[in-house]
Fold each of these.
Amino acid sequence: MAAIGESTTLCMHVDEKELISVTDGGSENEIVLTMRSTNVSSYNVSSQKPIKSWSVPRMLKLQSPTIWNSKSDAYITVSNQQEVRNWSKTDQNIEKAHKKRFKFSLHKVLNVDGYEPIVVCQNGAVGFLSDLDTSSPPEGHLHGDDEILLCEAYRISEDICMACLVKRKNSETLLLLSTYKSDQWTYNTSRLDEDRNGLVYDFVCQGPVIRTLILDPDGRLCSIDYDTETNGQTYRYLCTLPGVTANTKMVALNWSHIAIGGLMKDKQECVGIFNVKFGTLQDWKPLPEQGKSGLKLFALHKHLIVLSGRCVYCFSYDCTTSSIDSILGNLSSTEVKTPSSSGPVSWSRTSSIKHTDTDVHELFTQLVTQASNRKKKLFTDLVDKYLSFADKEGHNTVSMSTYTGQIVDLCLSTEGFWPRDVVRNLINRGAIPHSKLQRLFDCLMSHSETEMILRTLTVMKELPEVCICKCLEFILSCEDSQLENAINSLNLTEKTAHTTDDCPLCWTKTYFLYPYLINIELLKYLNYILNEGKQSNPAAATLPYVKVVDWICHIVDSHVTQLIISPDARQILLDLHDVVQSQLQLYEELVILDTLLAQLKEKSTIPRSKKVGQYCIEVLHIL
Amino acid sequence: MGEFRVHHVRFFNYQPKTINCIHYGKEANKIAIARSDASIEIWSVKNNWYQESVIPGGEERSVEAVCWQEGRLFSAGLDGDVEEYDLQKLQSKTSASSNAGPLWCVASDSAGKYLAAGAEDGCVVLFDTDYNSLQYYKSFDRQEGRILSLAWNSTDDIIVTGGTDNIRLWSVNSGHALQRLTLGRTDKNKETIVWCVAFAKDMTIVSGDSRGKTIFWNGRQGTQIKSIQSHKADVLCLTVDETEETVFSSGVDPVVAQFDYIPAHKDSDMKIWVRSAVKSQHTHDVRGMTVVNGTLVSGGVDTNIILNNIETKKGARNWRKLNSIPHHKVVHVAKQRKLVLLQYSNYLELWKLGHTRASSDKNGEILPLESNPLKLLQLKTKDDEHIVCSGISSDGEWLCYADQFSLRLYKVTLNKDELLSDQISIKRVPFKLVIPPHRVEFSPDAEYLVSASNTSTIQVVSLQEDQPAVVHSFQAISGNPVHLMSVSTDKVLAVADVGHNITLYNLQEKKMICSLPKYSYVATAMIFGADPNNLVIAYADQKILEFSIPDEEYTEWCKTNCNKFPSKWLKRYNKISHISMSPAHPDKILLGDDQTICVLNKSEPFPSFDADIYNRTKWAGDGKANQNAFHICSKYKYMLHMELLEDDWLVIVEQTPIALSETLPMTLAQKKFGT
C-alpha cells in the first residue's frame, strides 16, 4: 500500500524555467535543486531546511542537474554546454570550481554509486569524466536534430547501463543503451516498436530489465520492457489513468508504483500514487496551488518534490510492495510474511480455476459423513489423509483452501467429540483461514485449551484485533499455574516469541483495542510490568516498555470517567502514579546525563584547530 | 614523498615597511621602491619582478621621492639634499643641497639633463645632472607654502607644481610662475592640499588633492576641465601611462581609479576624461604608483606591491600581488648546533631551536616538546645602522654582520652543559675589512669567511689563525653587485651577481675554476648539492639547472630535463629563494619560495608539459596519484626561510599574513554592507 503525507513548503520563488532538476545530495535526506542561472541549493527534505547554496555567476548557464558523486566527493554539473564543473561541499562559489573544458557539446552528467561521474555528450556518446578527451568527442550514435527525451544510468549487476530515450525528426523513438562492460563502452540502439507521442516518459530498472514507462495524453499508460541480457522488447499496456491533463507529470517510484502529479481528481489537481500492477490509485493529496501550469515532479528520499506555481512542495510518501491481501484490507500490515502453508495463500489474477480432483472431493464427502456419525478416530484419519493430499503439488490451492475452511468448520462445530489433535495439527500447519479464527478462539476458550490458544498466538500471524482482545481477557482470567503449565508445554523457541516485537499485542493498533481496554485487570497487569521494568532492564521486559506506557496512556485517556467512578481502579491509579513519579525522577536524571554527555561528545569530536603558536615541531608529509 | 619533522618557527617578527614612492627607470628597466625606513629596493622588471638589491636605509633618514634618470637613481628627502646612488656599491654616491629646506618631490626632465625638486620653502630647485654630475643649478621664484608635487611637461619648458590651495605653472627658462590655478575648499578653515600633479595629453594637467578629487585642467588656459570626486579621502598619487590618455589615481582611500581620454561621441573629434574603472586591491593608503609596459604598479602602507595588467581583457584575472618578503636571506641556520640567526633591520637575534625525540606518522601532528626554543642573544648594531648582511657558521661559533660601512665578527661560546642552562658568551673579534661587504658566507667547516664586497671583489678570510686575516682576494668579474654566494664542503665557492654571472672559485687553491654559461635570467637561489661537485641553481624564469664542477658543464639530468619543465611550473610568479639538499636523500632537491615547498625528485620522470603539478590526484581517473618529479606543499605562508638539517629535520621560518597585517595602522573607515 502507499500513503502520501501532508504537503510542506520547501522553498519559494522558484521559476519553472529555471529549475532544471532535483537530485540526490549525497547524504541522508539531502536534495539538491539546480537552477539554470541563479543558484544550486541543497536542502534537508525532512526538515525543509536549506543546507547550503552556491550562486551561479552571471556568465554561466547550467545545463545538467547537479549530481553528487561520492567517489570524488564533489558536486558535478555541466555549464555553458562545454564545461564540467566540480566543487566540494566546503567550496564557497561555483566560479572557482574545478573545470574541465571540452571542445564539443555535452548533454548531462550522471551518477552511479561507486563509479566516477558519467558524461553524456550531445551526440549520444558516453564516457567517464576523467577518460574523456577534451578536444574530440567519442563516436556517437545520434544526429544533430535528435531530441534526447530522457537519459538515466543504472547499475546492472557489475555493469553500468546508460539508457537514453531519443526522438528522431521523423517521430521515430529510439532507445540507446550504452553498457560499460570489461572497461569499455558498447552501444546498442533499438527502435521502440510502439511509436507514440507520449506525454511523459520515465525509466525504471529491475534486474536486467529496463522499463520505459510512457504516459499518453489520453491517460493510457504503457510500458516497454527491454531485457539487457537478451536484447528483447516486450510491449505491455498497463492501465488507463483517469484525469490526465497536459500538465500531468509522472515519475516511477518502483517497479509497480508510479507517482502522478497534476492529475484531476474531484475537480482539483492532485498528486497521487498509482499501483500499475492493479491499476489502482492508492492515495492522493490535492496540490496546494491549483490551476498552475509548469508543474514538475521528482521523487527522492521517500518524498515527492513538486514544483507548483512558484513554490516547491514536498510530500512524504510510503510505498510498500502490494499484494492482493493488503489491497483487500484484511491485514494490518504486509511487512510480516505469512507462514507458508497449504492454507489460504495469495491469489493470482491470472490463474484460472480448474476442476478439483475427484479423489479430494470424495474424501471430503467421507469426512462430512464421519463427522455426522461422531466417529472421532475415523474422522482424524481422514483429515490426516486429506492433509497429505494437500501437501502434494498439483492441487488447486483455491479449492483446497475452500475444503480446508470447511474442515475447520466441521472440527469446531462437531458436537459429538472434540477433535483436539486435528485442530492442533491444523494450527501447527497454519492452515486455519483468517475468517475462521474468531470461531476457533471461541471454541478453544470454551474448551479451556490455554496451551492451544498460546500456540495459535505464536504460530498464526496477523490475528484480528477482536481475537487478540478476547485472548487477552482469557489469559488474564486464567490461574497462574494453568498458564505456567501451558507455557511449559510450548517449546523454547515459541516462548521467545513473546519477548520480541513479534508478540501479537505489539503489532496491534492501539485504537482497535479501545473497546476492550476497560478491563481493570489489564491496567493492573500493565502497572505491574511498568513497576517490574523500573527494577529490571527495560529492554529485557516481556513487552516493549514504550508500548506499555502507550497502552496505559490510552486506557487512562479513553476511559477516564469510568476509572474515576470505579472504586477498584482508585488504588491502581494511585499505585500507577507512584510508579510513574519514581520513573520520572529517574528520567530527569537521565536527561541531565544525556545533556552532559552530548556536550562532552560535541567537545571531543569537533577537531580543534591546532595552535602552532610561536613555535612548534610538527610532522610534514609532502605527497 | 617526503616525510619531515619541521621546526615551525613563527617568532621571527619581520615587519616590512610602508612604501613611500615608486618610480620606473625605462633605461634600466627597473623600478625603485622607497620605503619608510629610507631603504630603496631595486626590482628588475626583466627578471619577472625580482628584487635584485636593496640600498639600506637608516633611522635618521627619509626618502620622500625617488627618480630614475638615464639609468641613474636619485632621491630627495627631508634632509634637503638630492642624492645619487651607486648601484654597484648600493650606497649614496653624491649629494647636492637644495638650499631651500626639506624636499618633498623630485622629477627628471625628458632629456635627462635636469632634476627639479619641490622644497618646503616654496620654491622649485633645479639640479644639473648633465655629464654624470649632480649640482645645484637654480631656484625658481618662491611661493607661499611648500611644494608637495611637481611634473615636467613633454617639451621640458614648463613645470607644474602642487601646493597648498593652488597649482602653479612655471617657466623653466625664466623661473617665474606662468599661471596660478586655484582650488576650492570643502571647509572654510581647511586648506586643500594638492598631493600630486601630472601632465597628460593635450597639455592637460591632472591633480589629486586632499578633498579626494581628481581634477583635469586645461594647462594652456588655466581652466578646469573636469573635477571628479574619485575618492573618499586624500588623493596621494597619480600616474599617467605612456600614451598619456589613461590616468590612475589613489590615496588614503585605497581604491585605484582609472580615467580615460575618450571621444565624447562615436566618430567625434572632441575627447573627454571619464572615470572608467575602479580597482580595490589595496587594504591601506596607496602612496606610490607607476606604469611599466602596460602594467600599473602600486604600493603603500600595506607594504605589498600590486601589479595590474591594464591591457588585459575584461573578465580575466589581471592583477597579482608581490608581497614584501625579502628575496635575500634574512635567516641563517647553524645546522650543527640547531641555532637560528634572525636578521632584523638594526639588530640580530640568535635562537636555539626546541627539541623532541618523539616522532609520528600522522601528517600535521604537533609533537610534544622536550625543550622550548630559547632566545640566546640579541645583538644591536652600532648607532642603529641598518644591517646589510649577516651570517653564522655551521658550528655556531662564529657570527658576523655588516652594515654599510664595516663588518663585525664575533666569537660565540655556548655552554656545553646546555641541557641544564644555556649560557652564551660573545666576544667581538678585532678584525677590519677594508671594503664593507654585501654578502658574507661561512664555509661549512668554518675555516673560511667569504665576503663579497661592495666593489664585487671576493675576499677570503681565514678563521683558523689566532687572528682572522684576509688570505686572498678575487677580483670582480663585473660591476654588478653580488647577491648570492654558496660554499661547498670541498671549499668551492660559487658567486652570483645581478648581471647574470655565476663564477666558481677554489678557496684552497685560491684560483678561479670557471664561469657558468651566462643565462638570460638572474639566479634567485643556488646551493651545492648533496654531491659537492654539483651546483644547483634556480633562475628567475623558474628553471632549475644543475652544473657539474669537475666536468664544467651541466649534468646529464639537467640536460635531459631542462626543457621539460611543465607549463604550470614555469608560469609560477613566486621566485625560488631557498634550495636545500641532504646527503641522506641525494635525489631530492627541496625548493622553496615564499608560499610553496616543492620536492623535486630527480629519480622520477618529469610530467607532461601541460600536467597539473599542483593536484596530483585530480583528473587522474584511476584514483592513483600521478607519479612525477614534482611534489608540492602549500602549507606555509609566507616563508622567510627553509633549510634541511640532518636526518628528517627541516627548519621553516614563517611570517603569516595575519601577523603581517596585525602591525599595520588603521585603515580608512569605510561603510560596508551589513556592518
Note: Residues 327-356, 492-502 of chain A have pLDDT under 50 and may be disordered.
Amino acid sequence: MNALEVEDLVMHFGPVRAVDGVTLRIREGSVVALVGESGSGKSTVGRCIVRLLEPTGGTVRLAGADITHLSRRQLRPHRRYVSIVFQDPAGSLDPRLSVGDIVGEPLRLMRRKGNVADALRRVGLRPEVAQRSPHELSGGQRQRVSIARALISEPRLLVADEPTSALDVSVQAAVLNLLADLQRDLGFACLFITHDLSAVEYLADEVAVMYLGQLVEQGPRARIFGTPAHPYTQALLSAAPVPDPVAQRQRKPVLLGDDLPSAIDPPDGCRFHTRCPVAVDRCRTVVPESRVIGSDGHQVACHLVEADGSGPDVRTSEGVAR
Amino acid sequence: MSAVLEVQDLSVSFRTEDGRISAVDSVSLEVGASEVLAIVGESGCGKSVTAMSLAGLLPRSARVDGSVRLDGVELIGAGKRTLRSIRGREIAYIFQEPMTSLNPVFTVGSQIGEVLRTHLGASRRTARARSVELLKLVGIPSAERRVDDYPHQLSGGMRQRVMIAMAVACDPKVLIADEPTTALDVTIQAGILDVLRGLRERLGTSIVLITHDLGVVADLADRVAVMYAGRVVETAEVHDLFAHPQHPYTTGLLGASPAAGRHADTHRLAEIPGLVPVLSEQPDACTFADRCGQALNTCTASQPQLTRGEHGLACWNPVGVS
C-alpha cells in the first residue's frame, strides 16, 4: 500500500509550466526527499499533494483515494491523512491565536479528539507553551509548534517543505533529529522537500531529483548518493560543499553555467540539455523517458544512460563512462 | 606576514527602544595579503555587524569603539572624505542579495563604469572597455554583449558576478563578502566560490568571508574566526580548526551539520540546547556557559580571553583537555 501516488502531475500557472509530468510513489512509513533548486517546482508538487493547489493535470492519490479534483467539502474526510509543515514557521502560524489553539485547530475542524499537551510534549515543548503566542517563541520552537499541529491528526503522510531552511544550523540539527524520531516512532510517510543535500542524506530513504518541473532521477538514498546516473544529479552532488576542508579541496564541482532556462519556455528535448556538459543532438530534440535501470527501483530520464545503468559521469573531467 | 587589515578590540553597540544592545565585543582580527579569513557563526552572532563596521557602513544608532587599520590607516573615527575615498577603492563589499544592491534602471556596464569614473577618473570609453574586462574576469560569457544588459535580464548568479566585478573594479586590497552565496543555488554557488578563489589568486585580493555555511568555509577559507554572541571564541587555520576544534561551541556547530553518508538510523546530530542570548552589556563571564555541556564554575564568574597565537581560544574548559 502506498501512502501517496502521484501520476503524471501537471501544474501550470498561466504560461508558467511549474510542474510538467511528475510521477512519484511513497510507501507507507517511508521518507522520500524531493530535491531540486529554486524554480524546479518541488514546492508546487507539495502544494498539489495537500491540495492547496488544484492540479492542471494528472492524479494525486492519498492512501488509495483520488483527491485530485475533490471540492473543499469532499476533501474534508481525506484531510486527516495528510499534513504540511512550511519553511517559515513565523508566516504559517496565526499570530492572533495561542499556541494551544493553533495546535488544536485541526482537531476542531475535523471534529476529532486529541490531546494538545501530549502533542506539544511529543515535539519537545512544555505543555505550558500552549498559553503563549507564536511571537514569544524562537524560530526553532515555532517550527516545533508547526510540527505538533501537523501531526496532531495522526496523518499517514507528512509533507515537509524546507522545514529547516530558515533555521540556524544548531537549531536545524534539533529539528532534523526531531523529525527522524517522530517518523520512526509514529511511522508516517514523509515527503521531505529540500535543497539541502546533507539533510537529505540524514533523513531520506529514497530521493527524487527535480529539474525545471520534471523528475530526472529517483531511487534509494545510497544509490543516488553513491552512483548517481543523471548528469544533473551528478553535478548537484558535486557542487554542494562538504564541511571538511581536506575532502572539499579534493573535490571538483561540475560548473553548469548560471543561465537557468525559464519554466515559461522550457528547452525542447531534455530540459537539462542547455546546461548539460555531455548533451548530444538527440538530447536537444527528443524528450527522454524515465526508465528503470536497477532492481532497486532506480529510475533515470537520460538518453545517455544505458539499461544497465552505465553512462557518462560528468564529475570526471572527460565525462567518460564509469 | 604583515596584516593588510588589522582589527583591534572592536566593539559595537546599538541604541534601541529597549535600551542599548551589544552586538560586537572586543573583536580582534587580522587579515594578511591575499588571505581569505572566514567569520562564521549563527544569526545574531555579530558577524555581519563586524563586517559593516570595518568601513563605517553602520547607521548612526551604532556606537563603534576600537581600531580598524587598513595598511596602517585608522578607519574608526576617520572623516567622511577619508572613508569615501577608501570605500569601494581600498575596501569593497558584496552582499547576499545582488538584486537589491544593483540599480534596476541602469545597465550593468554603466554601474561598473560609475565606480571607475568616480574613483579612478576614467573616461566613459575607458570605463566601458574596463567594464567588459571585469565581466570577463568574473566569468560572464559574451561580456561585450552582457555589458549593456539591465540587472533584470541577468540570472541571480550572473548578478552576483556583476556585483563582484563592481567590487573589484578598483582592485581593492580587501573584499568583504557578506554571505555572498546564501541566496544562490548550489550549482550557482560553486561558480561564485570559484570566482572568489580566482580573484585571490590573480589579483591577490584579501577576502573577509562572512558565512554561516561550514561547507563554504571548508572550500575557500585560509583561516577561520568563530563568533558567538558578539565575541570571537576560537580562531585558527582552517584545517586545524576542522580537525582540532577546541571550543565547545565550535565542536557543537561542526557536530550539528549532517555529514556525508550519515543517516538518522545510525547517527544523531549534535544539538546545542538553549538560545543565543541578547545582551544589553557584555558580562564578565563566558556568554556560551549556559548552553555549554562542560561549563565550570569559573565559566560563569569570569570572561575567558581569546589567547594569542596560531590557534586562539576563549574557553576555560576546552574540548579534549581534561
Note: Chain B has a mean pLDDT of 93.
